[in-house]
Specification:
The chain has ten helices and 13 strands. The protein is of the alpha+beta class. It has two domains: 63 residues, lambda repressor-like DNA-binding domains (434 Repressor (Amino-terminal Domain)); 191 residues, 4-Layer Sandwich (Metallo-beta-lactamase, Chain A), CATH 3.60.15. Strands 6-7-8-9-12-13 form a six-stranded mixed beta sheet. The longest helix has 12 residues. The protein starts with 6 loop residues before the first helix and ends with a helix.
Length: 273
């Protein structure tokens, strides 16, 4: 799977978040404004940008920008390592969004993390594996992540919802220090605002054969990039550093868009950190 953001996207996202105008950034990069604008659009520079001068201006890592320029992407993940876990990607409104299904292999209890645009792939997985759907965990309330909530609840009327959406009924909101059992698995949450006020990361533990924990991170970060900081860039970076990068390095990171990655991969290669 291709990265959600190419190198030009990373530069534009960081420049916008840092409130640096195109001309100033282009001057630091050793490019004309037209060349930098074209680079942000296509990630195909007519001339190589001066990352050493540009990166500090945009609060990025120059060596990690070089890695992206050289074609870095996270090592492919074999999800078969996690018995009872599937990625579900659906498309709509010009976007492809990831949802995730996790279940206990013994009890067959399952939980869905975000819905994406279409519930039918979820329904097929439930039927194929003989699962019962008990929970829906929502990472944040942007439309592409919750587009199929209504049809899902219609089909599974007793499903328990979990989110940080302030307008949700109290019994559907995450509770402090709450740990939800899912057979032999457990689901806890960490607040990760910055991209969205109600942003949450869910951590799934207890997979068989000592498989690493899984963190469902919404749009907090992507492989090699970061979500759009709709609230605050510093708030979003703090969420990542304190709530995601504090997890063990092998932890599987499952973003709302783009490929799977790990804590270690992002600590070593994400230019925003």
């Amino acid at each position: 799977m291709m990265l959600e953001d190419h190198l030009g996207d990373v530069i534009r996202k960081a420049r916008t978040a840092s409130h640096v105008d195109l001309s100033k950034a282009a001057q630091a990069a050793g490019l004309t404004p037209e060349e930098l604008a074209a680079f942000e659009e296509s990630a195909q520079p007519a001339r190589k940008p001066n990352f050493a001068a540009l990166a500090p201006l945009l609060d990025l890592s120059a060596p990690k920008l070089e890695q992206l320029l050289q074609g870095w992407s996270p090592r492919p993940v074999d999800t078969a390592l996690w018995h009872g876990f599937k990625v579900i990607s659906t498309a709509g409104d010009g976007l492809t969004v990831n949802a995730y299904l996790a279940w206990d292999a013994v009890t067959k209890e399952s939980a869905l993390f975000d819905t994406g645009f279409d519930i039918m792939p979820v329904v097929h997985l439930l039927e194929e594996n003989g699962l019962s759907l008990h929970h829906l965990f929502i990472t944040h309330s942007h439309e592409d992540h919750i587009a199929a909530v209504a049809p899902l609840r219609e089909r599974f009327p007793f499903i328990q919802l979990h989110s940080n959406i302030k307008s949700a009924p109290k019994d559907q909101r995450n509770q402090l220090n709450q740990i939800i059992p899912l057979g032999n698995l457990s689901v806890s949450y960490r607040e990760t605002p910055g991209h969205c006020e109600d942003g949450v990361t869910y951590v799934i533990r207890g997979f068989p054969k000592n498989a690493p924990d899984i963190a469902i991170i919404g749009d907090c970060i992507f492989a090699g990039s970061m979500g759009r900081p709709n609230q605050s860039s510093e708030m979003l970076k703090k969420s990542v550093r304190t709530q995601i990068f504090s997890l063990p390095r092998p932890t599987l990171l499952c973003p709302g868009h783009g490929p799977l990655t790990t804590v270690g991969e992002e600590m070593d290669h994400n230019p925003f950190f």
